[in-house]
Structures are given as C-alpha cells and as structure tokens.
Amino acid sequence: MNKNHAKQLIGLVIALAGLWIFRNQIAAAWDWFGNFDAVTTSLHEAGIWGPATLFILFVLQVFLAFIPGQALMVACGYLYGFWGGFLLSWLSLAAGGELAFVLARRYGRPFAERWISPEVLARWDKAAQGQGIGFFATMLVMPLVPNDAMCYVAGLGTISRRRFVIANLLGRGMACVATSAVGALGGHISGAGWAMIAVVFILIGLAWYIARSRTSSLILA
C-alpha cells in the first residue's frame, strides 16, 4: 500500500468514526432541516444572529448536499420579508458559489470531487465546454439541474472569473426572486404577483430551452 492510499484509508476511518460518534447530533440536524416550522422558529429566536446563521448555512449548502437550499430560501422570505429575504439569500448563495468556483480553480478536480460526484462533474464538463454567462446563469437557476455543481464545473472550465461572477449573480438572483416571494407572501400573493413570478419562470424556461438545444448533443455524447 502506497502512502497516498494509506492516507485515504486513514481519512475514511476517521470520517466513519466521526459519523458514528456524532450520529445522534447528525440525525437531529437532519430532522431540523426537514421541519420548516422548526427552522423558522429557531432562526426567529436567534434574533440578530438569525441572518448570520442563514448566511453560513447558505454557503455551506454549496458544499454539503444535505442542507436544503431552496427551503432556506423560502424561510428567508418568511422571516425577513420579500426584500430582506431576497437580498440575504441572493448574496449568501452568490458568495457560496464564488467560493466553490475559486477553490475548484485553485485546487482542481481532486478538490471538486470531494463535494460533487465525478460522474456529475464529467457530464456537465462536457456540456459547459465553450459556454459563457448565459449558460451558467441558466444552469444556476433551473430546479432539475445540480445548481451548486455548476460552480465547480465553472471553476474547472475556461470561463473567466469576472464572467462567472455575472452569471452567478444573475442565476442566483432569478432563483431567489420566486422563493422569497413564496416565503414572504405565501398564499396571499396577488394576481399581479403571481403573474410576475410566472413571467420569471417563463423567461427561465426559454433560457433553459435555448441552452439545452445548444448543449443536448454534448450531454448525450
């Protein structure tokens, strides 16, 4: 057994031991994330630390798939209103995406594969070849796309950091508009409000159709 394999085996043993030792805490955290009332109550009781807690959770969810980003986005709108929830979730998600991009670009594929499966990275690497702001903005908002994985894909690709920042802000912003509105207004959204949300999703759908038509042959190849 070479030195690298020995390090990987030691790391795996330590990780499994940690999961076993903290199994009760992990189970409690899993239940908490799945309970919207528990999440909002805890964050409300946190007072001024609530937004800071949400910011940290949003950044972490780019690396930890079990943290439900969309549920937290709705909770933001519910707790802090449309504009407060929108700004908090938008800037937090953008910061997390930027961090994933920078780290993937600096440390390469071995780092990215610690957080995203190699198969997902390989599939979307091919789709993202030669793509720019429009493609990544669309991929970061579509619900059936591994949004956070696209930050790593961008970091491993050729898109410039400046162009990714623009795509990141646009994509995350579009996603946060709808979720913040749902959280803030719930069942009391006016007809005009639902119309605005519908327009946003229609535009997203059109962007998705265009992006998919340009990349479907690459994904299936």
Ordered list of secondary-structure elements with their pairings:
Elements: H1 3-21, H2 23-33, H3 36-45, H4 49-61, H5 69-107, H6 109-112, H7 118-128, H8 133-139, H9 147-156, H10 161-185, H11 191-220
Helix pairs in contact: 3-4, 3-5, 4-5, 5-9, 5-10, 7-9, 7-11, 8-10, 8-11, 10-11
Structural summary, described in words:
- The chain has 221 residues and is mostly helical.
- The chain folds into 2 domains: 1-33; 36-220, no CATH class.
- It contains 11 helices and no strands.
- The chain is globular.
- The chain starts with a helix and ends with a helix.
- The model is unreliable at 25-30 and 217-221 (pLDDT under 50).
Q: How many structural domains in the coordinates? A: 2
Q: Please tally the β strands and state the result.
A: 0
SS summary, helix count: 11
Query: What would the principal axes of the Cα set say about the shape?
Result: globular
Mean pLDDT: 74
**Strand-pairing-aware structural class:** mainly alpha
The largest β sheet comes out as: none
Helical content (DSSP H or I, runs of 4+): over 70%
Parts with pLDDT < 50 across at least 5 consecutive residues: 25-30, 217-221
Radius of gyration: 19 Å
- Our measurement of the CA-to-CA distance between the termini, rounded to an integer number of angstroms, reads 37 Å
Strand share of the residues?
A: under 5%
SSE order, one letter for each helix or strand:
HHHHHHHHHHH
